[in-house]
Structures are given as C-alpha cells and as structure tokens.
Amino acid sequence: MNIRIFNSQEDLNEAAADLIGGLVLRNPSAVLGLATGGTPVGIYASLVRRCAAGIVRFRDVTTFNLDEYVGLPKNHPESYFSYMRKHLFDAVDARPERCHLPDGSAADIAAECARYDGLLAQAGRIDLQLLGIGHNGHIGFNEPDHALLSGTHVVELKPSTREANARFFDSPEQVPTHAITMGIGSILKAQSILLVARGADKAEIMQRALYGPITTDCPASLLQTHADLHVYVDTAAGRLL
Ligand code: GLP
C-alpha cells in the first residue's frame, strides 16, 4: 500500500493527475475507472488543464464510471452522467462512445446491470480505478452489508449516504433512493487503484478502511487485499494513518 499525505489540495490534485495522466501517456488506450462526488473534482480539473495544454489526450481512452443514481434522467443536472460531462468528458477530447456509465433511467435495470458487466468484460481490465470513500466506508455505492456483490447491481442507499449527497440537490427528498453500482469484484479486478480522501470527516473511516478488520461492514476495507493500492489524502483525512 502506497500512502501519500498532502499539505495542500493542489498538491494532491496534481499528484493524482500525474498518476492518471502518466498512465494515459504511457498507454493512450488505457481503461480508466472513474468516480464522482466532491473528491475527484480538482483532479479532473487538473486533467482538463493538461489536455488543453496538449500534455495528455483522452481520444483513445476508455472509461467506466462506478455508479449512477436510479431514476434520474441522464441529463438531470445531478446525474453522474451530467457530472462527468461537466467536469471531464466535455472539457477534454474524450470520445462519448468510449465513456461508459450505467444508465439509471433504463426501463429494465437488471438488463442494464448485465449490459454494463458485458462492457466491462469486453474491455478486459480496468488499468486504474479512481475511488472516493463514503463516511460509512462505501466505495462506488457498495454500502456496508452482511454480504457484498461482485458484479454490477442495484443498491438501496443508506439514509446517511442520501444525507451526505443531499448537498448537491435542492432538497434531501430529491436524492434518489437507489443506485446502480459496479460491484466490489469489478473494483478489485483493476490493475491499480487510487483511493482519495479529503477532510477531517474522512479521517476515522480511512483508518478503519486501511487498518481495521477486512469486513463487509466497511466495503473499503477489502481494498487492503489489493496488490497495487495507492492512497492519496490531505493532512486532515490522513490524521489517523
Ligand atoms: C458518493 C459516490 C462515491 C463517492 C462517495 C464520496 O456517493 N457514490 O463514488 O466516492 O460517495 O463522495 P464525496 O467525494 O463527495 O465525499
């Protein structure tokens, strides 16, 4: 496990963008696993700047997002599809047909999960999976449970997760109750994983995830079993590491 603790958000963003951008430079047709939420915004902004400066290209990159809300139309401002367009896809030279997210508005959600797993299987392997972490240790939307699923599936969001994400919506009731998420098996299959956390409110869960028991009560703790895990945190989130 490679843990790096950064004094500034900017340094963290640049280091994470170095890791992702460096991979894309070495392998222009890399497969990236991408995350949403507040955590990766500055990392994407750095990648956008690098692309504008001609340092990195996304033309041949394939991307898979971790998750999507169920029931939001794709173009809803808070869908993860809209998030990714705003923060990355529309601002770089990515090709839309190579940028995959689960479709939370699909009429047949089970078929949509199977379609997504089919696309992942076709891609072979994710070269680098970017992850944030929920306060309860969720990764993607794999919430703590007595058992975790390997493949893409629907989850009911915990009230605490809906509360945490209410900041992005006009009112808490508007946060969807369900989401489609890539499973833990797909996440752990990635060649390399970059887990990022910021802020004092993530310090305890980061300690549990990295040094606590490996348990489905804290899905991020399964990352301890991964052979190439990189953890980038700011000093606040890394206080207990
Ligand atoms: C969200 C997403 C996760 C994300 C996590 C933390 O709900 N589904 O992919 O990593 O919760 O979010 P944030 O970065 O906003 O703290």
UniProtKB/TrEMBL annotation:
Alphabetized UniProt keyword annotations: Carbohydrate metabolism, Hydrolase
Keyword Transit peptide: no
Pathway: Amino-sugar metabolism; N-acetylneuraminate degradation; D-fructose 6-phosphate from N-acetylneuraminate: step 5/5
UniProt enzyme class: hydrolase
Domain of life where this protein originates: Bacteria
Cross-referenced Gene3D superfamilies: 3.40.50.1360
EC numbers for this chain: 3.5.99.6
Catalytic activity, as annotated: alpha-D-glucosamine 6-phosphate + H2O = beta-D-fructose 6-phosphate + NH4(+)
Entry annotation: catalytic residues: 67, 136, 138, 143
Transmembrane region(s): none
GO molecular function: glucosamine-6-phosphate deaminase activity
Ranges for domain Glucosamine/galactosamine-6-phosphate isomerase: 18-228
Function: Catalyzes the reversible isomerization-deamination of glucosamine 6-phosphate (GlcN6P) to form fructose 6-phosphate (Fru6P) and ammonium ion.
Family label: Belongs to the glucosamine/galactosamine-6-phosphate isomerase family. NagB subfamily.
Protein name (database record): Glucosamine-6-phosphate deaminase
Organism: Paenibacillus chartarius
Lineage of origin: Bacteria, Bacillati, Bacillota, Bacilli, Bacillales
Gene name in the database record: nagB
